[in-house]
Amino acid sequence: MIMLVKTKHFGEVDLDENKIIYFENGIFGFEDCKSFTILYNEQDGKRPDISWLQSIDEPALALPVISPFIIKPDYNPVIEDELIKHLENLNESNIVVLVSVTVPSDIKNISANLKAPFIINSDLKKGAQVIAENPEYEIKHYFYEELQAYKATKEGK
Q: Which CATH number does the domain 2-155 belong to among 2.30.290.10, 3.40.50.150, 3.40.50.2000, 3.50.50.60?
C-alpha cells in the first residue's frame, strides 16, 4: 500500500509501506521516532553513495547515511548480541549496515560515525542503532580522501 509521507527536505513523498523500517528503540537522541525509510536522489539512474534515513514520525528528521564499507572496506563492528537479537536471523543476504554522516560547510571535513552504526534486517524491515565496542572506531571518522578514492575506482570500472 502506498502512503503519503511529509518531509522537510524532500516535500511530500509517495512511499510503499513495505519500505518502512521499524526501530524498536528509536535512534540515539530520537528514541520516540521508531519508523524510518531510506530516501535517495537517483543520479543518472544510479543510487548515490549517500542516502537519507528519513523519519516517518518526524518530518524534519532526516540523517545522511552511507555504507561504512565504502570508506572503510574492513569495517567490522563488534556488537553485543543482546543489542541486535530482536533483528532475528541476520545473515549476509539480509543485513544492511549504515553509518550517519556529518557534512560541514567545508566538504573536506566530512565525517562518519563509525561508533554507532545502524544495523537493519532488510527481510523483516527491523533496525537498531548500536554502539560498536571497537575502540578504533570514532564518532567522527573523517573520510574525504577515502570517498574520492572510492569514486575514482568506481568511475574507472
A: 2.30.290.10
